[in-house]
Amino acid sequence: MKRISPRMRFRMMNPFLQFFKFIILSIKIMVIVAGGHGGTRKVN
C-alpha cells in the first residue's frame, strides 16, 4: 500500500480547501446546467 505524504494528508484534512473545491464544483455544475438548457427547465 502506498504511504500518504504529509502534504497530501494536510490537503485532504483541510476543511477550507474541501469547502473551496466544493464551491468551484457547484459553480461549474451551475454554469453547465444553465448554459446547456438555457434556464432551469429541461427541454427535450
Topology of helices and strands:
Layout: H1 6-13, H2 15-37
Q: What does this entry show, briefly?
A:
The protein is an all-alpha fold.
Description of the structure:
It is a single chain. This protein is mostly helical and 44 residues long. The chain has one domain. It is built from two helices and no strands. It has helices at residues 6-13, 15-37.
Give the tags.
single chain; 44 residues; mainly alpha; 2 helices
Query: What structural class do you assign from the helix and strand content?
Result: mainly alpha
Total DSSP helices: 2
Distance between the termini: 47 Å
| Count of the domains | 1
Percent helix: over 70%
Low-confidence residue ranges = none
Strand content: under 5%
Roughly how many Å is the radius of gyration? Answer: 17 Å
How confident is the prediction overall: mean pLDDT?
A: 78
Q: What is the number of beta strands?
A: 0
Helix and strand run: HH
Coarse shape: elongated
Give the biggest beta sheet: none
